[in-house]
Amino acid sequence: MTLKTKISKIILLLVCCLLLIASCNKPKYQIYGKDPFPQINLPVFSDAFQIYHVINRPVGAKSVQYKIKIRWPAKQLIDFYNSEFYKMGLSKYSKDNYGGGEWGHFIDGTQKGNPEINQYLETWVDKNHSIRILLSLRYNRTKNGPWPKEVSVACQVTKFYDFTKLNEFFERLRRSGKDQQFNTLIARYSKSNH
What we know:
The protein is 31% helix and 31% strand. It has four helices and eight strands.
């Protein structure tokens, strides 16, 4: 084999590798029906990977999900979304105590190994309260392991809804002492094949 042939094969191999790498980070689309919000493009932070755009699942929703290497508390990511949503004419919304722009810490008993979660939720609405955008940032770690340097991002737009009534329902359950029973039934139901 000549030197020229060897160099050509090496260049071809490098080009194939670069194409493979580029295609692995290409956004993927999961479309389950008509886009309920074709006028809205949900922003994605630069250097994101494992990007998934999900259209109409759940029905009437549109979301983008991805990961990014950024340390907790992800201030530059939060600032990015604040800026992008303000440019879209949206304002923060926390009247129903859901998505008030704070970090929460909890053990996720629904996942194998009960990982620890640091989660940030923020909600924005348009001036007419016709749409609601929820941003979720999650750092997951196994028990006693180090906190990862990557965050899972989910951003979803839906028609406006208000959790006030749901919050009142959960408060009545808690006061009546039936919240544990309710949560057990919900967990049992969600694990079955219904």
